[in-house]
């Protein structure tokens, strides 16, 4: 069907959902910790976690994660959720709009997942941004990942729009 419409081979490579939040709902099972802005001493960890995020999300490799981490630190965009003084999850606040901010790069290492760290990190970061005057925060989720979609909805994020990326080529 895609070939008939496009006149060439076509396949969907990405299907995302944009969510928005104007009021945070605290996580039911929150991780006990604290949100903090990542600093220069965190560059190695941000780089490593950035690489792991790209691999886990199935994104194309090739971006210099060290340079990205440096930009996030300089902009005070990278945030960690610390438990007992050590980072257990991260989220990046970027993509400012006149009334909002996008959250992305939400990542928890495999051995620390399932404990509510990412939920606590995103909830705290979202609340911080709203308290600072943003009217809403945004984030994208992979439509095929029911876990992240459910988690963000429980935090107060609601679906706004779907996004698909298609590749066209051939005949």
How would you describe this structure to a colleague?
The chain is 32% helix and 35% strand. It has a 7-stranded mixed beta sheet with strand order 2-3-4-5-6-1-7, sandwiched between helices. The protein is built from 5 helices and 7 strands; from the N terminus they run H-E-E-H-H-E-E-E-H-E-H-E. The protein starts with a helix and ends with a strand. The chain has a single domain, classed as Aminopeptidase. The longest helix is centred in the N-terminal third of the chain and has 15 residues, at 43-57. A hairpin with a 2-residue loop joins strand 3 (78-83) and strand 4 (86-94). It is an alpha+beta fold. The mean pLDDT is 91. Helix 2 (43-57) packs across helix 3.
